Amino acid sequence: MSKEVDQNEPMETRARARKASRSKDMLSSLEIRVVNLEESVGDMKETLKVALTRMEELREDSKEFVLDSLRSTLDKLKGRDEALEALLTAMKEEIVELKGKLRICKVALGSGMLASGPKQRHVDIPKLEKFKGIRSAKEVDNFLWELEQYFRTIGIEDDATKVNTASICFSDVALLWWRRRSTDEKRGGTTIGTWEEFQRELKKQFNPQHTEKEARAKLRRLTQQGTVRDYVREFSELMLQISDLNEKEAFYWFEDGLKMWAKQEFASPRYHRIDQSYGQGRKFL
C-alpha cells in the first residue's frame, strides 16, 4: 500500500509542474500581449494627437482663407459703392447745372431775347469764368462783378435764378463749399434767400480774414511813388476791398497820397468826387 502511494507522488508532482509551466507560459504570453497593446495604444494616441493638430491647422487655414475671401469681397463692394457714389454725385451736379441753364433759358425767353424776328438785336453774352475758391478779395469782387454784367446782359432779375446761376460757376474748393452749404440747408440750416445774402456768404467764406482792416490801413498809408497810372491802379484795388468806404473819405485819401505837383492839378473845385478825380488822373496815363 505504501509502495503504491510512493509511486503516485512523482506523477502528481510532474503534473503540477506541467500545469505551473503552462500557467507561466500563458502569463508570459499575456504580458507580451499587454505590452503590445500598450504600445499600440501609445501609437494610436500619437497618431490621434498628430491628426488633431493637423485638423486644427486646417481649421485655422480655412478660417483665414474665408476671412481673406470676405475681406476681398468687401473691398470690391466698397470700391463699387465709392464709384457709384462718385457717379451719382457727378450726375446730381450735372442735373443742377442743367436746371440752372434751363432757368436762364426761360428768363431769356421771357425777356424776348431768343425771339426770332427782323428787329431782333444781336447781343454778345459774356462767358462766365469758373470760380475756384481762391481766398482773395479781388478775385471774389471780380467774380461777382462779372456775374452782375451777365445778369444785366440777359435780363436776369430773380434772386433765386441769380444764386443758381452763380453756383454753376463754382469749381474745386468753391464747389465743395457750396455742396456742404446746400447739405446744411437740407438738414435745417440757414437758407440763402436773396442775392445780397449770397454775396455776403461768399465774401465771408473766401475773403481773407481782416481783409478790409488791412486794406483800409494800406489805403491810409498809400502814397504816389511813381506815375499817376500806378497810383490810381493801387488805390482802386485797395478801395474795392473796403465795403463801407464813403465818397468823402475816399476822395480825401486819394488826394492826400498824391505828389505835390499832382495835388495842384486836383486843386480845382471841379474835382470833389472820387470818380472825377479818376477822370483827371487818366490825363496823366
Q: What average pLDDT do the residues reach? A: 76
Number of strands: 0
The helix fraction, in percent, is over 70%
Shape from CA axes? rod-shaped
Summarize the helix and strand pattern as letters: HHHHHHHHHH
Give the strand content: under 5%
What's the N-to-C terminus distance? 172 Å
The largest sheet is: none
Number of domains: 3
> How many H/I helices?
10
Which residues form runs of ≥5 with pLDDT under 50? 113-120, 281-285
Report the radius of gyration as a whole number of Å: 50 Å
What is the SS-derived class? mainly alpha
Care to give the gist of this entry?
By secondary structure, the protein is mainly α.
Describe the structure.
This protein has three domains: 13-89; 123-206; 211-284, no CATH class. It is rod-shaped. It has 285 residues and is mainly α. The protein is built from ten helices and no strands. Mean pLDDT is 76; it is low at 113-120 and 281-285. It starts with a helix and ends with a helix. The longest helix has 109 residues, at 2-110. Helix 2 runs antiparallel to helix 5.
List keywords for this structure.
rod-shaped, disordered C terminus, 3 domains
Write the SSE topology:
Layout lengths: L1 H109 L26 H18 L4 H10 L3 H15 L8 H12 L4 H11 L6 H12 L7 H10 L3 H6 L8 H8 L4
Helix pairs in contact: 1-3, 2-5
